[in-house]
Specification:
Layout lengths: L4 E4 L7 H6 L21 E3 L11 E3 L17 E2 L13 H9 L1 E2 L13 H8 L2 E7 L1 H15 L1 E3 L8 H14 L8 E7 L9 H10 L4 E3 L8 H8 L16 H6 L14 H15 E3 L2
Parallel strand pairs: 1-6, 6-8, 8-9
Antiparallel strand pairs: 2-7, 3-10, 4-5
Bound molecules: 2-acetamido-2-deoxy-beta-D-glucopyranose (6 copies).
Length: 288
């Protein structure tokens, strides 16, 4: 099977603006990494082969789909009960998303797709997605890996602490390494606490330097995250379609249950999977 490779460009929290400006020079490819150190029990492969409701998924090249930003992305986190008989139409990834909760902005009510694993794989096949940033971006990476691998890495083991997080990232990368060379690269970059102290001007300068990069803002609830988020909105899609934007601020603001986060700041696995669903909606479209 051909999986896209997902490469995480940062191993440790570093002053993020430094990282950001070096982004295209400093890519710590993890593709040659050794097998996971935690043993195979970290991966529970699901044998869910239900392709029943699967539709063709295609990749949308730069500047990708623009979902919206700011008030247009405000959403209410809610679980969805599937109608009797409908459960069989969805794969385990989709069923888990409905049970764990989704946060659909009303404006996207009829257009946002909850991707099945097969659809996500089909869309990203032959693509290289580089996810760069700090621990928050590692979590987004694991959310996407959960969907692509159709599996729950180590029973939704929450990645408490950076060494745990690195192990899960290494495992996910290990299982995603089969790929093609002719990849069309997508770069996704962002950070959480590490840009709290950054001047808005530096981030804008970064956006100017790194064309075609999808920017991911800080989650809600951190010091200055609203200020930085609101300050950046005018510079990002949809206001500036040449700077694609993945607005995860609103969904983190909406997820207020105790289990949305395991340390008050980093989000739980299911929230990261929802972020990854929004990324898939930015990169992919379903035909028919
Ligand atoms: C999935 O199928 C394989 C091969 O049929 C089997 O060895 C494995 O135990 C199954 N895994 C699960 C989680 O059911
Ligand atoms: C999170 O907590 C809420 C409220 O306590 C609960 O309804 C929901 O099922 C939990 N979600 C997950 C994925 O555990
Ligand atoms: C979304 O649209 C469906 C069907 O039109 C409707 O039943 C539902 O209430 C809408 N949900 C929201 C959050 O607007
Ligand atoms: C890693 O996670 C395990 C299980 O959740 C936990 O017991 C352990 O303390 C964590 N390790 C670190 C360094 O946080
Ligand atoms: C970004 O680049 C444009 C022209 O390429 C320039 O006018 C603008 O001042 C730059 N903005 C920043 C914040 O550097
Ligand atoms: C966040 O801001 C509050 C109030 O200004 C301050 O007391 C706190 O130390 C800050 N927290 C961090 C992590 O910087």
């Amino acid at each position: 099977m051909k999986y896209p490779v997902l490469v995480l460009a940062l191993a440790a929290p570093i002053i993020c603006i430094l990282l950001l400006s070096l982004f295209f020079d400093y890519v710590n490819w993890e593709e040659g990494r050794a097998a996971p150190t935690m043993g195979d029990e970290i991966i529970i492969m699901s044998n869910d082969t239900n392709d029943y409701n699967r539709r063709r998924a295609i990749f949308i090249p730069f500047p990708h789909n623009t979902l919206g930003s700011g008030v247009d992305m405000e959403c209410r986190w809610e679980t969805k009960a599937l109608r009797e008989g409908d459960a069989a139409k969805y794969d385990s990834t989709q069923r888990a998303a409905f049970a764990e909760g989704v946060c659909v902005p009303p404006r996207l009510n009829s257009s946002l797709r909850v991707f099945s694993s097969a659809e996500a794989r089909e869309c990203l096949r032959f693509r290289r997605v580089i996810i760069s940033g700090d621990s928050y971006m590692k979590q987004l990476f694991v959310g996407l890996a959960d969907i692509l691998l159709s599996t729950k890495l180590s029973r939704d083991y929450q990645m408490v602490g950076s060494s745990n997080r690195s192990k899960v990232v290494a495992s996910a990368n290990h299982y995603l390494t089969e790929r093609r060379r002719r990849d069309n690269t997508v770069a996704v970059v962002g950070a959480g606490v590490h840009i709290e102290g950054a001047a808005l001007g530096e981030i804008k300068k970064f956006l100017n330097l790194t064309k075609r990069t999808i920017f991911v803002p800080m989650p809600a609830g951190l010091n200055r995250s609203r200020e930085v988020y609101e300050g950046l909105l005018p510079y990002l899609a949809p206001n500036h379609p040449e700077h694609p934007f993945l607005d995860v601020f609103q969904l983190t603001r909406s997820c207020t249950m105790q289990n949305c986060s395991y340390d008050g700041s980093h989000r739980s696995r299911y929230v990261n999977r929802w972020k990854a669903q929004l990324l898939l909606n930015t990169l992919c479209e379903i035909l028919g």
